[in-house]
Amino acid sequence: MRYEEFKEAIREELLRHPEGLSWAELKSRLQLPYSRPCPTWIGCMEAESGLTRRRGTGRSLIWLLTPDQQVAAERDRAPADGLRVD
Fold first, then answer.
1. Is the model's pLDDT at 86 over the cut of 60?
2. Fold of the domain spanning 3-70
3. Would the pTM count as exceeding 0.90?
4. Most buried among 34, 44, 54, 77, using CB within 10 Å?
C-alpha cells in the first residue's frame, strides 16, 4: 500500500465517522496490513489532510479530520448539478 492509498482510505473512513476512530478501529475496518501507523505518514497527513488525534479512553488516540477538512471534503463530494457558478 502506498502513502496516497493509505491517506485516502483513512480520509474516507473518517468522513463516514466524524466522531473519530481509534487506530485499532481503522486498522480493522480498512483491513490495513500495519500493526502501527507510520509516524512519517501521520505527520504528512496532519499537514496535508487536516488529521488530528486526541486522547480517547485508556491509551488510545482518536483520529479525526479538522472541521474545515470535513466541510471541504463534503463540498468536493457533492454531486454536480450542471449549474455554473461564476
1. no
2. Arc Repressor Mutant, subunit A (1.10.10)
3. no
4. 44
